[in-house]
Amino acid sequence: MGKVFKYGDDVNTDVIFPGKYTYTVTEPSEMAKHALEDLDPQFKDKVRNGDVVVAGKNFGCGSSREQAASCLKYSGVHAIIAESFARIFYRNAINFGLPAIVCPEAARSLKDGDSVQVDLTQGKIRTESKVYDFVPFPEFVTEIMEDGGLLEHIRKEFSSNG
Q1: 118 with 142: CB under 8 angstroms?
Q2: CA–CA separation, 36 and 72 (whole Å)
Q3: CA-derived radius of gyration, the chain
């Protein structure tokens, strides 16, 4: 079980990964140190592998900065659950192997600090007292996430085919 970090609507890419680091911080461990620092300065100290970010509507709006998705993954976030995602952020998250789960009921109900378990294959979000259903990802998207992202998935496909 991971711990929930709960945020509101319209969490934009500039507060997920501050723009001032876009071209200067590229090392994954350094990127993780700056995840959500303008929204939640203690996030980097509290987050653990397997934790889950939960938010309202339009998570990841703003610029198309791919570091917004990657810094969350590098910080140990297992998944993001939201009422809705900005289109480009959603795709960037999948490309980095970070599940972006649309589940409005869970996004509205889960509280900061809740314990949660996400089952991607069954489309279930479990807490100690409730189970929320979401539409599981298509098999090819699940494979991308299991392989660690699109780049690793392509490498695996090319190495096994030839």
Answers
A1: no
A2: 8
A3: 15
